[in-house]
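Worked example 3 (structure in, sequence out).
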C-alpha cells in the first residue's frame, strides 16, 4: 500500500486558513488622538485569524510588574481573518473592522498617557506593543505612580516593540515616516522611532492611513518553499 506522508512543518504551512496567535510585535500602533474622541490606529505586522482578541489598556505598568487597575481596557476582536498590512482604526470605542468591548474607563489623558496592547489575562499578559506619550526625553517613566505614568512593560523593547513619544509631550500624533514597506522587524524599527512621528496639541483628522506592505521574513519564505517543493515524501508500507 502506498501512503503519502507530510512533515509536521509542511502540514502547518499547507493548512488552509491557519494563523498563529498574535504574538509580541505582531502589530504596531501608528497614531493616536488624546483630544476627544479618543482614537488610535494600529497596523498588523502578521496575519491574524478570525476571532483573535487583543486588549488595549491605558493602565500603567509597575516597574515591579503588573498593571495599575484604575483605568480601562478596550478589547478588539477580529471579525474575519486579516492580512498583514491591514490598518485598524478604533475611534470613540468603535473599530473600522472587527468589534470592540470595554471594561473600566478607557480615557486617554491630554496630560500624558499610554496605550499598551496585550493578549490573555491582565494578571498574566503577553505583551504585544506599547505606546507611551507622557513625560519627556522619549523614554518611559521609572514607575506607574499615577494614571498618566507607566514603566516600560516587561517583555517589550523601546525602539522595537514599544515607542515613547514625548519630547515634547503632545496630545495627538501619528507615524509619518517614509518607510512603509519592509519585513516586520524593519517596520517595527521605523514605527518605534520617534523621529518618524509628527505630533500636535490640535486633534489630527484624519490620522495617517497610508498603506503598509509587510514582506515575509526570509525564514517564512523558506518555510513556504519547503512546503511547496520538498514537504511531501512518499513511502511504501
Amino acid at each position: 500500500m502506498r501512503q503519502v506522508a507530510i512533515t509536521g512543518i509542511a502540514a502547518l504551512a499547507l493548512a488552509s486558513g491557519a494563523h498563529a496567535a498574535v504574538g509580541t510585535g505582531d502589530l504596531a500602533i501608528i497614531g493616536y488622538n488624546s483630544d476627544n474622541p479618543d482614537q488610535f490606529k494600529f497596523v498588523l505586522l502578521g496575519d491574524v485569524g478570525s476571532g483573535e482578541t487583543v486588549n488595549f489598556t491605558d493602565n500603567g505598568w509597575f516597574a515591579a510588574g503588573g498593571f495599575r487597575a484604575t483605568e480601562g481596557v478596550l478589547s478588539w476582536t477580529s471579525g474575519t481573518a486579516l492580512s498583514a498590512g491591514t490598518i485598524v482604526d478604533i475611534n470613540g470605542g468603535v473599530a473600522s473592522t472587527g468589534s470592540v468591548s470595554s471594561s473600566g474607563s478607557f480615557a486617554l489623558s491630554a496630560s500624558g498617557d499610554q496605550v499598551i496592547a496585550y493578549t490573555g489575562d491582565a494578571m498574566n499578559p503577553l505583551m504585544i506593543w506599547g505606546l507611551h506619550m507622557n513625560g519627556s526625553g522619549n523614554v518611559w517613566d521609572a514607575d506607574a505612580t499615577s494614571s498618566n505614568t507607566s514603566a516600560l512593560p516587561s517583555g517589550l523593547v523601546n525602539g522595537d516593540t514599544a515607542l515613547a513619544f514625548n519630547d515634547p509631550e503632545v496630545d495627538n500624533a501619528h507615524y509619518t515616516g517614509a518607510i512603509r514597506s519592509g519585513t516586520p522587524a524593519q517596520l517595527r524599527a521605523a514605527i518605534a522611532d520617534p523621529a518618524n512621528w509628527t505630533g500636535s496639541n490640535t486633534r489630527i483628522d484624519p490620522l495617517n492611513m497610508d498603506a503598509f506592505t509587510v514582506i515575509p521574513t526570509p525564514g517564512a519564505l523558506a518555510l513556504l518553499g519547503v512546503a511547496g517543493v520538498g514537504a511531501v515524501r512518499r513511502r511504501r508500507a
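Notes: The CA atoms of residues 54 and 184 lie 18 Å apart. Residues 1-17, 226-237 have pLDDT under 50 and may be disordered.
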